[in-house]
Amino acid sequence: MDRAEKRELVTGLNDAFKGAGSVVVAHYAGITVAQMNDLRSKMRTAGGTVKVAKNRLARIALQGTESESIIDLFKGQTLIAYSEDPIAAPKVASDFAKGNDKLVILGGAMGSTALNADGVKALATLPSLDELRGKLVGLIVAPATRIAQIVNAPAASVARVIGAYARKDEAA
Prior knowledge:
The protein contains six helices and five strands, in the order αβαβαβαββαα. The chain is of the alpha+beta class and about 170 residues long.
């Protein structure tokens, strides 16, 4: 890489770190190309990104961002997973690490909060933003459904009583 490419990579990573809801740093030594492509596709599906960058360039890119406190994690063969949704990147990385022992989560950041490996795994157990929105909509809709059932109940009772009298008259 020449200087211009390095500068462009650092600028791109810096923008990504500033816009990321969460960042996960992990060691990936021993992962095959096929496994890395699988991780990247899973992360892309969840709305995140996986990048492998030189540690020195990643440290430079972290300067001036909220996630600057995780600079010390960049030692050895590291990859960076990040997403706008604070839950997506930790969830995909943790799920992939469960099935592949060669991916070792070192830690990460959510905003200005630095997370250790256990913190990333705890964050991964939380429901995603879409799941939370679905639950919230369900809670809002549930009372309206109950009100509609209660309002319709007297009319349904009257209809059943009239139907019973009609069947009684037909039988007689």
